[in-house]
Design brief:
The complex is a heterodimer.
Chain A lengths: L8 E8 L3 E7 L3 E8 L4 E8 L5 E7 L1 H23 L1 H24 L2 E7 L4 E3 L6 H19 L4 H9 L18
Antiparallel strand pairs in A: 1-2, 2-3, 3-4, 5-6, 6-7
Helix pairs in contact in A: 1-2
Chain B lengths: L23 E2 L6 E6 L34 E2 L6 E2 L5 E3 L2 E3 L1 H9 L9 E3 L1 H10 L8 H15 L12 H25 L1
Antiparallel strand pairs in B: 1-2, 3-4, 5-6
Helix pairs in contact in B: 2-3, 2-4, 3-4
Classes of the chains: A alpha+beta, B alpha+beta.
Chain lengths: 182, 188
Amino acid sequence: MDDPKTAYKKLPGKKRTSLWRHRLYLADDHILSVSTGTFSFAEHYKRFHFKDIQAITLRRTWSALIKTIAAFVIVALLALAAWGIGQDGGQFFAVLAAIVLIPGIYSLIIGHSCRCFIQTAVQVEELHSLNRIRTARKVLNTLVPLISQAQGEFTAEHKGLYEREKPSPAPVGQQVPTPGAP
Amino acid sequence: VAKVNCSKCRKALPSALLNEPGLKDCPYCNAKTQVWTFPALVKPPEAPRKEDGFKFEDDAACFYHPTKRAVVPCSWCGRFLCSLCDVDFNDEHVCPACLVSGKQSHKVKRLETQRMLYDNLAMALAIWPMLIFYFTVITAPAVLFVVFRYYKAPSSVLPRTKVRFYIAGFIALLQIAGWVTLLVFLLS
């Protein structure tokens, strides 16, 4: 029954909210997704074994861009206020503008945001720590060869099998539109 | 065969989008998406094993189902198992009872989905009450209790030192020393 000690390697990317911290770790045969509760003092684990992973989906989102634009608008307003008030009270607004500018520039540097999902036979789970495209690609460049090594390559034959299977009909009122149709 | 759905509109993505380099538009919602797929996606479900069936006189019986033929012994406890009771775990054949006992005794890390971080709890109990110092009368002994009670409790499955326990214990001792000094000062 002895459980061999699993060596985990920390993967790039993390997400921190007020309630949770998310990270990904890599083991020999699986990925470990760790969510730590800020107030529950507990770690929650989800393991995705390489041989069970069916697909990984990455979708670009606009949230980071919107936040960056908002930060620059605020910086502009604060700079305007600092310039308008002049030397006496303006310094306060200038410092405030600099403080807001730092996360704005950081967000610009780290690039577009995204959401990444991993699919197995029984679940589709979001990998919260992969919330930037650049980080996600870096991690997936490591993971995809490992998964392919465990399962083999997804060949044209597999693609044919996927095509052959028709998706279940959408419920009434949510009919799937034909691609390219107006 | 399972389908890969768009994470935004939840509609099944066409095969043309699978394993394509770069972000492509979802045909239904135009969300920029990239999909990596693997053979497990189109793998058919496992067919029932040939050896599965009812037991004859000379056959070994399953420990849990005496009327069924045993196909494999449990790798951990050695009990004979039928195909229904045989769980493939880490390339081993294990019976459900061993898995349950392994999970309950924290001996099989891979089955655990949650671990309590008592060292974080001790640190929080030691630091946060200092904002309103009076609370430390209660929380400092509580920290010491957590440190001594849970020092040997299983911590994270990831590598983690016990340093938080030491720091929390040290802070709690300082708080207690502070209160004792204050009490002595007031009484004298």
